[in-house]
Design a protein that fits this description.
285 residues; alpha+beta; 8-stranded mixed β-barrel; 7 helices; 22% strand; flat; binds calcium ion
Length: 285
């Protein structure tokens, strides 16, 4: 009898110890994971300079940013409501969030609050990196790519991977934006790819989305339309500056640029993945 009870005690002690050990390992690794990497998606928001545009003398930009529901006559009313005044009213940044008043107005953010959605990231930082300044956390703006000349109107996927198999998965849902490259309208080289062709049995609705890419010429336009949660729709137009075919591993196309540029890439010749057809374009200002 006493033998069984001793054995039971031993087993209970062993179970308790195992339980403590397991908890220590589980919570310890949970803590470490969070300590080192609280939220990888949020962590990628490096602060970059925001474009400094004077809307007062930029008619083309007014039109693009206008979209009928944002007009400059209304800017004055908006400025009054927000107690903004002074000679430098468009370019001033009273809340020091990296976003001049003019861009606060365009994006519908609060010019007197550096973090309009209260998620811990400044309005300017969010916009520069493609995040929605009016949606908490790691919500990106919803982007579609429109190339009128080719009849292309497709969603842009914010790729979060540089692993080829996963990138191909992204291409099932539209055009793919290479991670860590510039966001639409922002300084730097934005790299976007799409299928020109694919296997007949391949999944996805965008397997031929860029099959006519070679029909584009210098001067043609590619539009990136961004939609924020607050309803703001902003079109960024890129005008094509060059077109060329290069090898599949040409690293030069990834080189960064100081100004907002677009690199659009697809497999070429049509029906193969031997080479790449590249379109280079610059933001219309
Ligand atoms: Ca500001
Ligand atoms: Ca703000
Ligand atoms: Ca924010």
């Amino acid at each position: 009898m006493s033998f069984i009870s001793e054995n039971m005690k031993f087993q209970l002690k062993k179970a308790a110890l195992l339980c403590i050990l397991f908890s220590a390992v589980f919570f310890g690794s949970f803590y470490l994971m969070n300590f080192f990497d609280p939220n990888p998606a949020l962590k990628t928001k490096a602060i970059k300079p925001v474009q400094n545009i004077n809307v007062a003398d930029n008619i083309e930009l007014q039109k693009r940013a206008g979209n009928d529901n944002i007009n400059l006559a209304a800017f004055d009313d908006w400025a009054k409501v927000n107690n903004l005044s002074g000679d430098n009213i468009y370019d001033a940044d009273p809340d020091k969030d990296g976003l001049p008043n003019y861009l606060e107005y365009i994006h519908g953010t609060d010019p007197n609050n550096a973090d309009s959605d209260g998620d811990g990231f400044f309005d300017g930082t969010e916009i520069t990196n493609g995040y929605d300044p009016d949606s908490k956390g790691d919500a990106m703006t919803v982007v579609s790519v429109k190339i009128d000349k080719l009849g292309v109107d497709a969603p842009m996927v914010w790729s979060k991977t540089d692993i080829e198999a996963n990138m191909l998965k992204d291409l099932e849902s539209g055009l793919s934006h290479f991670m860590k490259t510039a966001a639409p309208g922002q300084n730097g080289n934005m790299i976007v790819s799409g299928h020109s062709s694919n296997y007949a049995w391949a999944k996805g609705g965008y397997n031929h989305i860029l099959e006519k890419l070679n029909d584009l010429q210098t001067g043609d336009l590619v539009t990136f339309q961004t939609v924020q949660k607050n309803g703001r729709i902003i079109d960024y137009q890129y005008k094509i500056t060059s077109k060329f075919v290069t090898t599949a591993n040409d690293q030069k196309i990834f080189e960064n640029t100081p100004n907002p540029t677009l690199t659009l890439t697809t497999c070429w010749p049509l029906g193969t993945n031997l080479k790449r057809l590249i379109i280079k374009a610059e933001l219309v200002k």
